[in-house]
Predict the 3D structure of the following.
Amino acid sequence: MNKRSTVVGFIFLFFLFQGIAQQYRFFNDQNPKFYIKEIEREDWQIIIEFNLAVNPETVTPYTILINGEPLPAEVKFLFNRKGDKLAIYELPQWNGIPVTIEIKNIMSYNNLNLNPLPPLFMYPEDEYEWDD
């Protein structure tokens, strides 16, 4: 074998393995999940991190419940640039006391439904993480 056929063989194998990897990635992404990775409560904020970008139109006062009640109109919340983190600014009456947080009916940008979060009891400075 000469150098040229060896190089051509390596290039062929490279593209063959790239195609196999692409197919593997395609089949693994057939059933993606949308879930919460982490929730932390600090500095007058509740920060919720998702594994995918959230469709902000699906986040309403009724999708995030604090102490069993929809978010009051005066509660401000905003997303980071990627859209996978949501910061909820706490009201003064929540300061220093434990609250329950429930999240449901939120969708990702690619129309996946969030696995609902049942009521989670959180003290100030608490942090919860879930494994992938």
The first strand starts at residue 36 and ends at 42. The longest helix spans residues 3-28.
